[in-house]
Specification:
alpha/beta; eight-stranded mixed beta sheet
Length: about 300
């Protein structure tokens, strides 16, 4: 990426989360020992930063064990917070691996309308192109003409092939055609947009099940990934979406978008703690290169304000 470095974008993207947490932690150290009221305030601050009740309780317990050391040092307080966040994030910081054989490696991308799903598909395609993979897009969200049109624009910008059909068309049939074309032309990665109509779970479940059946007939291991796109600005509502989509769609991994400029970046940690699913990449910024795998320790340090 040109211009601002990825590390600088991370610092900028998580600044509001870090500042909110820092403001709520201020004044709690410098008196020798944290008491139970201090620990309660810290736990509340962590919940306010959208790290979630379970993660906040976990960090509170750790600070309670170290209350003497932490009581005199804001640096030690931040270090312990960062360490506990990193412990949760390390196992889930897992980039998407294109390892299917025979090709193509099929990725179903799901998420509610407005989550940044279509743009995320384009950013994933760009990420794979940087790794020298051949990419094809599939406009499988046939319920919205705008979604089909937007994906076609991205395919043109990225100079990648796209398979689409008419609005209201059979998504499973379009996916079938796409796999056939991808196989014939030696495509490595097939990224499939899908409908995000979570308000009608049964209809969504039936459609995804049909797509999976069609894919399974062509390759028993396909789809190789079912990736849910979550919008960080929705905070705890993103976790509710994750609960619902995991139930109906068999989610295998996550991409979290719109982390720039939100004070709710802690939801990344809450999702990791609650579900333990791989988080393949995070989105910070509007440009095509602003989606990347992340380093758990770096993110943990930034959220805790432990960056020197």
């Amino acid at each position: 990426m040109s211009g601002t470095s990825w590390s600088d974008k991370l610092l900028s993207g998580f600044r509001r989360t870090s500042e909110r947490l820092g403001e709520n932690l201020s004044g709690l150290t410098g008196k020798g020992r944290l008491d139970d009221d201090d620990l309660d305030r810290i736990e509340e601050a962590l919940i306010t930063a959208d790290l979630g009740p379970a993660m906040a309780a976990r960090i509170r317990d750790r600070l309670s064990e170290r209350r003497d050391a932490v009581g005199d040092s804001v640096e030690e307080l931040r270090r312990i917070v960062a360490d506990e966040i990193a412990v949760v994030l390390r196992p889930v910081a897992e980039p998407l691996e294109i390892d299917a054989f025979p090709r193509p490696h099929v990725i179903l991308v799901i998420g509610v309308n407005g989550s940044g799903k279509t743009t995320t598909i384009a950013k994933l395609a760009n990420l794979f192109q940087e790794q020298d993979y051949g990419v094809m897009l599939v406009a499988g969200d046939t319920f919205r003409a705008a979604a089909i049109g937007q994906l076609k624009i991205w395919a043109d910008r990225l100079d990648v092939p796209i398979v689409s059909g008419p609005e209201g068309g059979d998504a499973a049939g379009i996916v079938y055609d796409a796999v056939k074309q991808a196989t014939a032309t030696g495509i490595d990665v097939l990224i499939v947009d899908t409908a995000g109509r979570l308000q009608n779970k049964r209809e969504l479940m039936d459609e995804l099940a049909k797509i999976k059946r069609v894919l399974g007939r062509l390759n028993v291991a396909s789809p190789h990934d079912v990736v849910l796109v979550l919008d960080a600005t929705t905070g705890q509502n993103a976790l509710s979406q994750l609960d619902a989509f995991r139930e109906v769609a068999g989610v295998t991994g996550l991409v979290m978008t719109k982390l720039d400029g939100t004070a709710r970046g802690g939801v990344l940690v809450a999702a990791a703690e609650r579900h333990g699913l791989p988080i393949h990449a995070i989105g910070i910024g509007e440009t095509i290169g602003d989606l990347r795998p992340f380093d758990a320790d770096e993110i943990a340090a930034i959220i805790a304000g432990n960056i020197r």
